[in-house]
Each structure stands twice: as C-alpha cells, then as structure tokens.
Amino acid sequence: MTYSIHQQRRAQLARQLGAQGIAIVPTALEHPRNRDSDYLYRHDSYFYYLSGFTEPQAWLVITGDGKTTLFCQPKDLEREIWDGYRLGPADAPQRLGVDAAFSVTELDAQLPRLLDGRDVVWYPFGTHKGLETRIDGWLTGLRARVRFGALVPGQQSDLCSLLDEMRLVKDATELATMRRAAQISAGAHIRAMQLSARMLREGKDVREYHLDAELLHEFRRHGSQYPAYGSIVAAGANACVLHYRADTAPIRDGELVLIDAGCELDGYASDITRTFPANGRFTGPQRALYELVLASQEAAVAATRGGARFTDPHEASVQVLAQGMLDLGLLDANKVGTLEDVIDKRAYFQFYMHRTGHWLGMDVHDCGAYLEPGELGQVSSRKDALTGETIVNRPARILRPGMVLTIEPGIYVRPAEGVPEQFHNIGIRIEDDAVVTADGCELISRGVPVGASEIEALMRD
Ligand code: GLY
Ligand code: MN
Ligand code: MN
After folding, report:
1. What is the pLDDT of residue 2?
2. Per-residue model confidence as pLDDT tens digits over 3-21
3. Any bridge partners for residue 459, and if so which?
4. Nearest atom of ligand 1 to the alpha carbon of 365
5. Which of 129, 115, 116 has the alpha carbon at shortest distance from 23?
6. pLDDT given for residue 386 in this prediction
7. Displacement of CA 117 from its chain's centroid (Å)
8. Which of 16, 72, 155, 325 is the most exposed place for a label (fewest CB within 10 A)?
9. Measured from the CA of 261, which atom of ligand 1 is nearest?
10. Is residue 461's pLDDT more than 90?
11. Can you tell me the mean pLDDT for 396-403?
C-alpha cells in the first residue's frame, strides 16, 4: 500500500504525540461578510497540511498510535443543492486514508470517548476562536465520569510547536506547487507593467485598480484560487505606505509604481514585489535608488544559504542600503557619522523600517520559529539606540535546505528636512521568494525580471 503525502505527515506527527497523546485539529471557521453572505472560504493551513481536505466544518483527531478520525459535514442533498458537493463520512476513509469518519454533528458525543485514557491533549493554541472552550467542555464531560473509570488527560500542549517545525521545511510536493505559484505571479507582474506603459502611451487614465484587475485575471486564469494576501498597487507616493492596498489613485507618467502581489495556488502562497516606472523609463533619481535597492537585494541573496542564519540576509542588505543612503545624501555623514554609526544607531530606519524577509509557505507570513531551537538558552541583551528599550536577543534560526523565505529590501523616502528633493515620495521594494539550498538559494519568482534595463525592455514591447 502506498501512503499519500497527508498520511505520511499524519504518521510523522503521531510519532511525536507520545503513545497516549491525542491531537485535535479543526479547520477554519466560516466568516460572515454581510448578513447571510460569507467571505470566500479558506481552509485552515494546519488542517489542510494533514488532510488535503478543503471543506469547512471539519476536524481531525490523531492519536499517538497513528490512528486518524475525521469529522466532516454529513451528506445532505438539500444543502448540497444550495452549497455544493460534500464528501461525507462514508467515503472519507477511502478518499482521505483516515481510519474512521463521523458526521461533525457527532463531535460532542465522540470527543470525550476519544479523549478517555489519553495523557496529553495537543491542539493549536491561540489560533481558533472558541477552541479552548470546546476542548474544556469535552474534558469537563469526561471528568464527570471519573467515578465510572474515565481517565482524563492531565496535560495540554501546543500542537503548533510540532506542526510549525514540520511545515518550516518544505517537501518536494510543496516546492513544486510553490514554484508554480511564483511563476503565475511573475507573469501577472509582467502583465501589469506592460498594461501601465501601454495605457499611458495611449493617453488613457490609468488607475491602480486597472493594474490590480490585470493581476487578478492572470492569477485566476491559471487556476489560482485567490490572491495570497491583499494586493498592493501603489502609485507614486502611495508606495511609501507599507500596507497600502490597490485603490483608485491615478498612475502618472514619470512616477514609479510599486506592486506587491502574489497568488495562492492549491493552498500555497507566493509573494512578489516589483517597482517600475509607470511609463517604462526610470528617471535618474529613480534609477539611482532602484539600483541601490537591487544591490542590497543581491547582497541578501548572496547571504542566503544552508548553514547561514535567518538574520544574515537582513544584515547584508542593511549594510548596502546604509552605505547607499550616505553616498546619495539621504543621510548626512556630518550628522549621522560613519556607516557603523548609521547601523548601530539605526539611522537607516528613517528610510528602511522593515525586515528583509519572512518564512513563506501555505501562509504568506508562514509559521516556523525564527530562533534556533537548540540555542534558546543563549540570551544576550542590548539597549536599542533609537528607542532606549532593552532588546533581548537569542541566536537566529540556522537556514536549512527546503526552508522558503522572502528577500525583500526596500527604501521609502518621505519628504523631510535635509532629504534631497529629487528623492521625495519615492518608494521602492524588490521582493523575491527563495528556496534555501545547501550552498545558496533558488529564486523561484524571477520569471519577472529585476534589472532596471530588463524591466524597461519588457515595458517597451
Ligand atoms: N506581501 C506581504 C509581505 O511582503 O510581507
Ligand atoms: Mn513578503
Ligand atoms: Mn510582499
């Protein structure tokens, strides 16, 4: 018998629960948007990782002996006429490889029985509204039966601690999906760039939403279910708002456009940012800042490899950006001192105030510890030069092949005294998705170029 990837993951998890352990994993809740219309449903990532099952109102219960019970929506012809096909408990064992399946309406009846005799209950802490209360109710029900021989678990543990570690290193199936997601997103960025230049050439009124529509069309036509996060399409000064969304602002000839957008494909995210001249030609000051951000990204890419620390790419890009800020006069050396001072005192923060990356996977800001698990005891502290706060440091995560992270330095120049006017209101970020390999990284999002001249060339065509 061959086991599906989801069965293999469940078996791997079961081995970590302890012989008498039990794990409870609900999928995501449905959320009303207005009156009786829900937000488009998106399953829970942990649940999907272990089941591949995307219906709402479903739960997995996995025990230390490797057995899985699924609770899912019962077959119901009338509801299926309105809402669509349901797998139902009868077909679930054969389709999903679970050992038993019940209707979700059986949850309250079955859970005390499944919990009886277990020692540790594992469930994801702090991720599902109301979950703690439900589990508490089942345990209370079981406690009421101790005089009749029930044995109540004495310990609760956070299931995320186990699943986050598993999810952090992607397997070949996951990487294949992520490569495809990144490829679709790269094509969408190219389409948006080309539309911007074309509409401006034709003298049309281009708006941020025109480019957003282009992204969505390209995502969906390749089978992506939804954007992995709210797309940012920021014209001109809007690029200096880090969490700006695609809105109605006009895209003007001579300005830059920053697009941060990626599709989700079969449960996996991509996350790409490109910044390009609306009309297809960088001005001198735009190009100077663009080349600086690109050089900082190249330094970060060079620092991304198995054995390096998660913080190494960030530190590499900060070095380049800070030096560039001094060279271009964004920072005045007479006021801020040397490169070392700029970094120590975080003077670069005026123009670069976010980190250079994050884990990427099923969630755009994916799970996984940013600290090295074996080195948590190595605590040091320092006083932050900007805020005066005491910052506690622990050694950052050591990168391993199969981890996926974004590399996304940027520069955001808000008008301020002493800041050369030619750079005012320019916001630039360049973001790629990197799979860590033993001696470097694979950039899976480079289907859309980053070189200034290459971008200009594709916008001419
Ligand atoms: N698009 C979200 C991020 O870049 O982190
Ligand atoms: Mn990102
Ligand atoms: Mn992004």
Report:
1. 63
2. 799 999 999 999 999 999 9
3. none
4. 5
5. 115
6. 84
7. 38
8. 155
9. 1
10. no
11. 98
Residue (of 159, 163, 124, 118) closest to 138 by Cα position: 118
- Give me the sheet containing 226-227, strands edge to edge: 226-227, 263-265, 268-269
**Number of structural domains in the chain:** 2
For ligand 3, the distance from its centroid to the CA atom of residue 155, given in whole angstroms, is: 39
Q: In the structure, what pLDDT confidence band is assigned to residue 385 with cuts at 50, 70 and 90?
A: confident
Q: Are residues 212 and 159 in the same domain?
A: no
pLDDT tens track for 119-137: 999 999 999 999 999 999 9
Same domain, 191 and 339: yes
Give me the CATH number covering residue 99.
Answer: 3.40.350.10
Residue 3: per-residue pLDDT: 72
| Distance of CA 152 from the midpoint of ligand 3 (Å) | 45
36 is catalytic: yes
Amino acid identity of 223? G
Query: What range defines the domain where residue 369 resides?
Result: 169-460
Which residue from 76, 79, 75 is spatially nearest to 90, judged by alpha carbons?
A: 75
Instruction: Return the exposure string of 299-311: e unless at least 16 CB atoms fall within 10 Å of the residue's CB, then b.
Output: bbbebbbbebbbb
User: Between vectors from CA 433 to CA 447 and to CA 259, what angle results, nearest 5°?
Assistant: 70
Q: Of 174, 212, 271, 366, which is the active-site residue?
A: 271
Is 358 among the catalytic positions? Answer: yes
Residue to probe by mutation, ligand 1, list 297, 359, 431, most atoms within 8 Å of CB: 431
Q: Work out the average pLDDT over 70-85.
A: 97
Q: Which atom of ligand 1 is nearest to the CA of 408?
A: 4
Give the span between the Cα atoms of 195 and 191, in whole angstroms.
6
Domain CATH number, residue 217? 3.90.230.10
**Which of 141, 97, 94, 93 lies closest to 115, judged by CA?**
141
Evaluated on CA atoms 426, 201, 431, 285, the torsion sign reads negative
Q: Tens of pLDDT along 305-350?
A: 999 999 999 999 999 999 999 999 999 999 999 999 999 999 999 9
pTM comes to 0.97
Residue 243 annotated as catalytic: yes
Query: What would the DSSP string read from start to end of 125-191?
Result: TTSSTTHHHHHHHHHHHHHTTGGGT-----EEEETHHHHHHHHHB--HHHHHHHHHHHHHHHHHHHH
